[in-house]
Design brief:
- The complex is a heterodimer of chains A (231) and B (247).
- By secondary structure, chain A is mostly helical.
- The longest helix of chain A is centred in the C-terminal third of the chain and has 31 residues.
- Chain A has a domain of 122 residues: MetI-like (MetI-like fold), CATH 1.10.3720.10.
- Chain B has a domain of 66 residues.
- In chain B, 40% of the residues lie in helices and 25% in strands.
- In chain B, the strands form two sheets. A six-stranded mixed β-sheet of chain B has the order 6-7-8-3-9-10, with helices on both faces. Chain B has a four-stranded antiparallel β-sheet with strand order 2-1-4-5, covered by helices on one side.
- In chain B, strand 1 and strand 2 form a beta hairpin.
- The longest helix of chain B is centred in the C-terminal third of the chain and has 16 residues.
- Chain B is globular.
- Chain B starts with a strand and ends with a helix.
- The interface between A and B is medium-sized, with 24 and 27 residues.
- The complex binds adenosine-5'-triphosphate (ATP) and magnesium ion.
- The site of magnesium ion has 3 residues of chain B, from helix 1.
Chain lengths: 231, 247
């Protein structure tokens, strides 16, 4: 029997891991944004061999499911770190690697490709006229960057970036595979304890939906603020 | 007040400006005319270093600069003594009219918000836009946007304002209000360099007309000398074409 009270009880349990899930997603968003910016920059330099390597890497990341990448990183990252540290004579037990680190590394790399595209699009839409206006008024390079370029790029990149944030939150439901407890993993645990999987997953769906709704609402507010003056 | 010596500019090997020498006195209105592609825009853009000349000298407001070895700091200095009014207005789209006028005062001149606000109000009144101070550029007509951009240029109190075809992008019925604002600026004693195809306006407002042709100054003089007494065949050809096109 479907029991509404169990849904509420599950809800309370699940909400406890919301902050952790959001924090993970935020870290991944920031890292992938930075990585994406670096990627965009390196690609803009058009260095022969490096550009081709990055292209291949990007097509690999785009073409591989997140689950596969997650396992790849899960099994290779500890070995890589242990090998790297051994070069400096530092001992490292591959089993001791925090699995949250695995999730962060995997998704940061995955989404850096998308972030890079978002940034490229925003830079592409930069209005050269406004930059020249600032220069003609004597804004220094940093002042132009801070006052004219960054606000424009942010306005352009914000909606897609916020979207990416929502996608990351949802993609984190894969994290249970490497024992990281996010919203979805918590729902599985709660369901297993009470033998009421349906109620637990209904609760999880409600939580995802609420987060999504709230973030979309906030995002629209911010976007409207930033886009004032744009038609 | 402003003088250019031996200014040269080339784009990928083609000489766009060739040995430009020009003097502008304080409070003078100097208008550049000439066929399309002769380097009028480029010349204005060299003065505020939006374009970097290959060689030449400029002195402005008592300081001399050598274009071939100008430092970043000097370039900034030079730009802060000039202001430009662009053909496409180039307003900051995400800022209101008054914020557009205030921004450079606060960012570049480090004025307080209050000071910048008062100065901006005053300049927007001068161009007749006191009722539109809180409108975004997208809510203003082309003529109004161009007047905001004139106010923005005035507000930084430059030594010279450079106007590059300020009315060319406007619907004909909006040209008048912008020309009126420019006239206002000229009357206030501001030094002006203007590129325009509005010949009768140029004739009325200018102290000096410079006729440019193929990257050189072909002839310069008072409006009377250029428009009525020129014996230069290129000038005559250009003006004739103009009159037949207009009338
Ligand atoms: N950024 C650039 N790169 C290469 N060539 C350029 C560039 N800007 C201008 N030119 C060339 O320099 C020459 C002068 O251009 P400029 O825009 O200064 O002419 P203009 O007198 O302002 O013409 P118009 O009346 O059409 O505005 C033209 O031949 C133009 O093609
Ligand atoms: Mg031009």
């Amino acid at each position: 029997m479907f029991d509404i009270m169990t849904v509420f009880e599950s809800l309370i349990e699940i909400i406890r891991v919301v902050p952790k899930t959001l924090l993970l997603a935020l870290i991944i968003l920031l890292l992938s944004f930075m990585l994406g910016a670096v990627l965009t920059y390196i690609q803009s330099l058009n260095i022969p061999v490096i550009k081709q390597i990055l292209d291949v890497l990007q097509s690999f990341l785009r073409g591989t499911p997140n689950v596969v990448l997650l396992y790849l990183v899960y099994y290779s990252l500890p070995l890589a770190i242990s090998y790297f540290l051994s070069l400096f004579g530092v001992p490292f037990d591959p089993a001791s690697l925090n699995s949250a680190a695995v999730v962060i590394v995997t998704f940061s790399i995955c989404y850096s490709v998308f972030q890079s595209e978002i940034i490229r699009g925003a830079l592409h839409s930069l209005d050269k006229d406004q930059i020249e206006a600032a220069q003609s008024l004597g804004y220094s390079t940093t002042q132009t960057l801070r006052k004219v370029i960054v606000p424009q790029v942010m306005t352009e990149a914000l909606p897609d970036t916020m979207n990416a944030f929502l996608i990351i939150i949802k993609a984190l439901s894969l994290a249970f595979l490497v024992t990281v407890v996010d919203i979805f993993a918590q729902a599985r645990l709660v369901g297993a304890q009470t033998f009421s999987y349906l109620e637990a997953f209904v609760a999880a769906a409600l939580v995802y939906w609420a987060i999504c709704g709230l973030l979309t609402y906030l995002m629209n507010k911010v976007e409207n603020r930033m886009r004032r003056g744009y038609v | 007040m402003l003088s250019l010596r031996n200014l040269k500019l080339s784009f990928d090997g083609s000489q766009v400006l060739d040995d430009i020498n020009l003097d502008v006195k304080k409070g003078e209105v100097v208008t550049l005319i000439g066929p399309s592609g002769t380097g009028k825009t480029s010349l204005l853009r060299c003065i505020n270093l939006l374009e970097r000349p290959d060689s030449g000298f400029i002195s402005l407001g008592g300081l001399d600069y050598d274009y071939s070895r100008i430092s970043k700091k000097e370039a900034l200095n030079l730009r802060r003594k000039t202001a430009m009014v662009f053909q496409q207005y180039n307003l900051f789209k995400n800022k209101t009219a008054i914020e557009n006028v205030m921004d450079a005062q606060m960012v570049v001149q480090k004025k307080s918000r209050k000071e910048a606000y008062e100065k901006s109000m005053q300049e927007l009144k001068r161009v007749g836009l006191e009722a539109k101070v809180d409108a975004y550029p997208s809510q203003l007509s082309g003529g109004q946007q161009q007047r905001v951009s004139i106010a923005r240029a005035l507000a930084v109190e430059p030594e010279v304002i450079l106007f590059d075809e300020p009315t060319s992008a406007l619907d004909p019925e909006l040209v008048g209000e912008v020309l009126k604002s420019i006239e206002e600026v000229a009357k206030s004693g501001m030094t002006i360099m203007l590129v325009t195809h509005e010949m009768s306006f140029a004739r009325d407002i200018s102290d000096k007309i410079v006729f440019m042709d193929k990257g050189r100054i072909a002839e310069s003089g008072t409006p009377e000398e250029i428009f009525s007494q020129s014996t230069n065949t290129r000038t005559q050809q250009f003006l004739n074409k103009f009159y037949t096109a207009v009338h």
